[in-house]
Design brief:
18 helices; alpha+beta
């Protein structure tokens, strides 16, 4: 999806762009490290530019998701989701198939051609230097950055918890704030690795002889420069944009009171995407609901409904005339208009006389209002209620929604154990999700001197960097997303009162979670903080992770391909787990996940046994929940799963709450 200079291509999936990469990410390509910029900084459609009108070609219409993002990000503007185009989209022939351009970052390089350096009369050492352009050369041997096999980018950059990122200030690090008399473009250093540790890497100034070890630099804090390289405009000459990758003019004018730490550019802590996923719930999986989410149709419906009642004999005719105006203006296709009108005519008694159309319109009007910022958890409660309703209709045979995007089969009962009540397990033969990326965090925990005086609620949680694209010509904000189709397993309690009895037995552990205060920190980056500290949520979340690992060990299913969703009822006395896969890979909707439901008794037994013992015991089991920690007894060896599987960042887990 990312095309570079001289037709170099780095291919990634649409889902990878949302779940792993996206603006602010550093991607390793054939030609070195590249930074993915914001869409409007000649990222998306690199040489042609991006606009709201263009993104409408690739819009994912989902009013629930738009409303959720608007509420979470506290937006007054209209929110939309777009899919990243692919090379199969015909539009891109005009832009040489450049789908997403990149920036060159970092711009410090190391030349490893030590023998050539010696021939030029210098020390037989590696050279660290700054590149002003892709045609830049090593200041010692003269080899060019773009073509030399001996030159590669330095592995280290700097970042702060507020999301700022920059090159390492090698000049300040080596000279310790003492000027050496050279400009950035003329300055270079010897890079001398004399062992396998950071302290054995020595950086030396060739002019004054000042030295510093990489270990010293790694332990040093730098005043934050306030730079967001992903938001910088490319530097180019001429009337038209050249092919990417681009160099940018560093903007370090930001005012940030944090300190930057040196970190490797490949570190996962450097950028963790913040994503939101919603299920297409069965009761709204109707074609009429899809069509009503179209902005032109919804706007026209509201206009006509203000003038006449839907039961008026002339309602459909008036609606058809108004929609034709949008068709003539190019804002609506004639196919969508004809389909919508035909549905109204063919299902008149149900939709018009039965009040279904009014009900759907009232819902969509509320969701479309910026002032109606309904909380994210309200949509999760709605999902849970809708799945339970569909499950109740699948007592003897599979039940499918009208559009077929949700299908659930009859349950299989799983016997109670010493640690779990009786469970109902439903094979979800088909489901559809919409996932959007709203931002990212840089988990750089840099404790300043004064942090010792701070409370736990004042530091330690990184800030979310919003990646929404704002069109200056319209009142709209756009976020990247994708549609997933797959299968899953839905697990809930046969009798909700049983789980309350189990939690009463663990009253001492449950009370530690009830007193939790750490979730307050995560209100900025997690919409789940409203329920995450509830003992029933922690119980379900812990069991979910253990089941994911047991399914992986039992079936050979890729652990990273299984995602989870934890549900609670509105009164927090019932709940459920949805384990699903919507990955477009070979682990997609092939029936492999639902086929293991018949073995759930055995899988549950293995999941419980794995909670009793961890390879990190007794260290792991000795950990109990504290207000300042997000977990109890949980670690990489027993409960942590892939970041693509857990939408809670491996937080709110505790073996104690299940096995004691």
């Amino acid at each position: 999806m990312v095309r570079g200079r001289k037709t170099e291509i780095q291919n990634i999936r649409q889902s990878n762009f949302v779940l792993t990469y996206g603006p602010g990410a550093i991607i390793e390509t054939k030609k070195g490290a590249r930074l993915i910029p914001m869409p409007d900084k000649y990222g998306l459609l690199a040489r042609g530019g991006v606009s709201s009108n263009l993104l409408k070609r690739y819009e994912i219409t989902d009013t629930r998701m738009s409303a959720v993002i608007r509420a979470i990000m506290n937006r007054e503007r209209s929110v939309h989701i777009f899919r990243i185009p692919t090379s199969s989209d015909k539009f891109f022939s005009a832009y040489e198939n450049i789908i997403y351009g990149t920036h060159i970052f970092p711009r410090y390089f190391i030349c490893y051609n030590a023998k050539a350096h010696k021939k030029k009369g210098f020390k037989e050492e590696f050279v660290l230097f700054y590149a002003n352009s892709p045609e830049a050369k090593c200041p010692v041997c003269g080899e060019t950055v773009e073509s030399s096999k001996h030159i590669s980018q330095v592995r280290f950059i700097m970042a702060c918890p507020k999301g700022h990122m920059d090159e390492v200030d090698w000049n300040r690090a080596v000279h310790r704030d003492k000027a050496c008399g050279k400009t950035l473009s003329d300055m270079w250093f010897y890079w001398k690795p004399e062992g396998s540790t950071l302290d054995s890497i020595i950086i030396e100034c060739p002019d004054c002889g000042s030295t510093v070890t990489m270990g010293e630099i790694y332990r040093k804090s730098f005043k934050c420069t306030g730079r967001f390289p992903e938001e910088e405009w490319p530097i180019y000459k001429g009337k038209s944009m050249p092919p990417p990758p681009y160099l940018t003019d560093p903007d370090r004018r930001g005012n940030c009171d944090e300190y930057m730490k040196v970190i490797q550019r490949q570190s996962s802590a450097l950028r963790s995407p913040v994503t939101i996923s919603l299920l297409t719930i069965p009761k709204l999986d109707r074609r009429i609901a899809e069509l009503l989410q179209n902005s032109s149709i919804r706007r026209t419906m509201i206009h006509i409904m203000k003038k006449m009642d839907v039961k008026n004999p002339g309602f459909i005719s008036a609606l058809e005339e108004e929609l034709q105006i949008d068709v003539d203006a190019g804002e609506l296709t004639s196919e969508l208009k004809e389909e919508f009108i035909n549905i109204l005519k063919n299902k008149k008694s149900e939709l018009l006389d039965g009040g279904v159309l009014i009900e759907l319109m009232e819902r969509l009007i509320i969701l479309a209002k910026p002032s109606e910022n309904i909380s994210f958890m309200n949509y999760i409660y709605e999902e849970f209620d809708s799945i339970l309703e569909a499950a109740s209709n699948a007592l003897y045979s599979p039940h499918s929604s009208e559009n077929g995007n949700f299908s659930i089969a009859p349950k299989i009962s799983v016997k109670p154990t010493e640690y779990t009540p009786e469970l109902d397990v439903y094979p979800v033969e088909k489901l559809r999700t919409v996932t959007a990326q709203i931002g990212y965090v840089r988990s750089i925990y840099n404790c300043k001197q004064q942090c010792a005086e701070k409370k736990d609620t004042e530091w330690g949680v990184p800030q979310v960097k919003d990646i929404g694209y704002r069109d200056g010509y319209s009142d709209e904000v756009w976020y990247p997303g994708y549609i997933g189709s797959g299968e899953g397993i839905f697990i809930t309690f046969s009798n909700p009162e049983d789980i309350q009895e189990l939690l009463d037995r663990r009253r001492d552990i449950a009370s530690l979670w009830i007193k939790d205060t750490y979730h307050e920190n995560y209100k900025r980056i997690s919409p789940w903080s409203e329920v995450a500290y509830k003992p029933i949520f922690v119980w379900l979340h812990t069991l979910s992770h253990s089941l994911i690992k047991a399914i992986y060990m039992t079936s050979g299913y890729s652990m990273a391909s299984i995602r989870e969703r934890i549900y609670l009822s509105r009164d927090h006395k019932n709940g459920g787990i949805l384990l699903y896969t919507t990955s477009p890979s070979a682990d997609g909707s092939m029936g492999g996940l639902v086929s293991i439901v018949k073995n759930m008794n055995d899988i549950l037994r293995k999941a419980i046994n794995s909670l009793k013992v961890c390879s990190n015991d007794p260290l792991c089991i000795a950990v109990y929940k504290k207000p300042e920690n997000p977990n109890g007894a949980a670690c990489y060896s027993c409960l942590f799963v892939s970041e693509t599987s857990c939408e809670h960042g491996n937080r709110w887990l505790d073996r104690h709450i299940i096995v004691g």
